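Example 9 (inverse folding). The structure is encoded as follows.
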C-alpha cells in the first residue's frame, strides 16, 4: 500500500506518545493530522459548543445509560432529540471522522476512528502502548505532576478511554484483534516508530 494514500488511525494508552508520534508521522507522509481538530470540526458542523465536545471527549459513559443504549447502532436508531448529550456529541464526531476520511489520506488520533472507518479499504489502524512506569514518568514531565498524581492520571484517563471505546465502538479497547498493528513505544525513539509504521503500511497489499 502507498503510505501516502493511507488513512491511518491511532488508538493509544495515555502517556504512550500517540499524539506526538501521530503528528510526526503525518509530517513525514505529508498528510493532514487530526486530534483535537476533530472536535473543532464536529462542533462547527453540529452547532454544539466546542467546550461541550472537550468536556465529553473520550469520556466513559455513565453506567446507568447502559440499560438504555448499547453502542453506535442504538444511537443511530434513536431520535436525535431523545439522545443524551454525550451520544449526540459522539454521533457528530462519527460523521466528522467519516467526512474527513473522504477528503483523502490523513492521520487521526483516538475517538474510535478505527471503528468508524473499519470498512475503508485503505485504512491502517494502530494501537500504541507502553509500560506503566514509562507512561507515568512521561506524564510527570509533560504535566508537571508528582509520581502519585501522574500514576492516578494515567489510570483515570486509560479507564475513561477504555469505557468510551468499549461502549461506542462495541469492542475491546486496546485488544489486538481491533487493530492492524500494535506498537510498544517504551524506550523507542519517535522517529524509529514512525519509520516502522511507514514500513508496515508499505508492506501491506
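The amino acid assigned to each position is listed next.
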Amino acid at each position: 500500500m502507498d503510505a501516502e494514500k493511507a488513512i491511518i488511525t491511532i488508538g493509544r494508552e495515555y502517556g504512550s506518545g500517540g499524539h506526538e508520534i501521530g503528528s510526526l508521522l503525518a509530517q513525514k507522509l505529508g498528510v493532514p493530522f487530526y486530534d483535537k481538530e476533530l472536535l473543532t470540526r464536529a462542533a462547527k458542523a453540529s452547532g454544539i459548543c466546542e467546550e461541550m465536545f472537550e468536556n465529553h471527549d473520550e469520556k466513559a459513559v455513565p453506567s446507568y445509560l447502559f440499560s438504555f443504549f448499547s453502542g453506535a447502532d442504538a444511537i443511530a436508531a434513536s431520535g436525535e432529540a431523545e439522545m443524551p448529550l454525550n451520544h449526540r456529541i459522539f454521533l457528530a464526531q462519527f460523521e466528522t471522522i467519516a467526512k474527513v476520511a473522504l477528503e483523502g489520506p490523513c492521520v487521526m488520533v483516538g475517538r474510535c476512528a478505527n471503528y468508524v472507518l473499519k470498512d475503508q479499504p485503505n485504512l491502517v489502524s494502530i494501537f500504541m502502548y507502553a509500560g506503566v512506569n514509562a507512561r507515568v514518568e512521561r506524564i510527570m514531565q509533560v504535566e508537571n505532576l508528582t509520581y502519585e498524581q501522574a500514576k492516578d492520571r494515567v489510570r483515570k484517563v486509560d479507564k475513561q478511554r477504555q469505557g468510551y471505546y468499549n461502549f461506542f465502538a462495541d469492542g475491546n479497547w486496546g485488544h489486538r484483534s481491533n487493530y492492524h498493528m500494535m506498537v510498544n513505544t517504551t524506550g523507542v525513539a519517535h522517529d524509529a516508530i514512525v519509520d516502522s509504521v511507514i514500513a508496515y503500511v508499505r508492506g501491506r497489499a
